[in-house]
Amino acid sequence: MSPEIGARRGWSRRLAPDPYILAIIAMVVLASLVPVRGVAAADFAILTKAAIALLFFLHGARLSREAVIAGLTHWRLHLTVLAATFVMFPLLGLAAERLPAAILPGSLSAGVLFLCCLPSTVQSSIAFTSIARGNVAAAVCAASASNLFGIFITPLLVAVALRTHGAPFSAGAFEAVIVQLFIPFVAGQLARRWIGGWIAGHARLVGWVDRGSILLVVYGAFSAAVTQGIWRQVSAVQIAVLAVVCGLLLAIVLIATTLGSRVLGFAKADEITIVFCGSKKSLASGVPMASILFPPPSVGLMVLPLMIFHQLQLMACALIAQAYAGRPAADAAVASPAILDPR
Q: Which domain holds residue 132?
């Protein structure tokens, strides 16, 4: 096989839909055809809450305390990432909210706002930083800190941003965040001393449990949405427009984080970390949070923009990572060992 053909196949694989996204879409289709209803829906809701608690327990068990402590030594980079994630993104979401309803209906603009309030990803941020030969240790710290702070910052941002939007939100959701997200996360951190080695040695199994939890939440959320007539509220044209809005949002953040890191004088390796950690939104955190913060019938519409954005960010960052990786070796950072257990 010639290098050119191999390169083309490599690009096509990176631009292909993420298999996990395809699995999520399959859950949406299944919920559309066979939604869970009645007493079964109530039982499934209990199962979903248990799955969310397990998910964040695993998040806590994976995260090394050293990752958070090490982050304190590069505070300018981490503040920049947090500003992009929790300041610039929400402001862009508020700007998108002002689009005419004929372009972006209120039900979808609320989902875009929710998307903009979420923390960054962990796994893909670190993976793309590594591919691009960036500061991997800083990526571990930045992405981990974003998810840790997001447990509290995201609900606060959602409460403020969506209050004037008319989206359903209750103060009781904060208690649910503590019970279903923070307490399991802390329990995972405490249990890491005994189970950290086992989790590291069974990363594939833990990953299946992790992703399986999200699939359960998606099925339950869209089952509730389907019974409330979600597909009568959103047309194919509106979904296409939503994809364009998500693409523009991603492009703006990618450009802003790239130029901003250069203006602030960061080294190339740190620039890469800022671009990949500051431009992403976490599907793994977003779907469970939506199921906690919003009533079941509205969760499907809330996570629809996130599902689209997630696939777009993977495709765009795959291209950007390859472009960064092609720079001269002298400009590349020495890859630091990851402090986070693999997922």
A: 19-327
Report field, pTM of the whole predicted structure over 0.85: no
177, 119 contact by CB (below 8 A): no
Give tens-digit pLDDT for 235-281: 889 999 999 999 999 999 999 999 999 999 999 999 999 999 999 99
Task: Give CA–CA dist 273/281, Å, rounded.
Answer: 15
- Please state, in angstroms and as integers, the Cα–Cα distance from residue 232 to each residue in 32, 44, 281, 301, 321, following that order: 12, 24, 27, 12, 39
d(CA 278, CA 116): 11
Tell which residue, 227, 232, 278, has the closest CA to residue 254: 278
Specify the CATH number for the domain of residue 111.
Answer: 1.20.1530.20
Whether 2 is covered by a domain: the verdict is: no
Domain membership of residue 3 (yes or no) is: no
Interhelix angle 236-263/106-116, rounded to 10 degrees, is: 30
Q: Confirm whether 44 is domain-assigned.
A: yes
- Domain tally, the chain: 1
Distances in Å between the Cα of 1 and the Cα atoms of 9, 11, 322 are: 11, 15, 21
Residue 231 belongs to some domain of the structure: yes
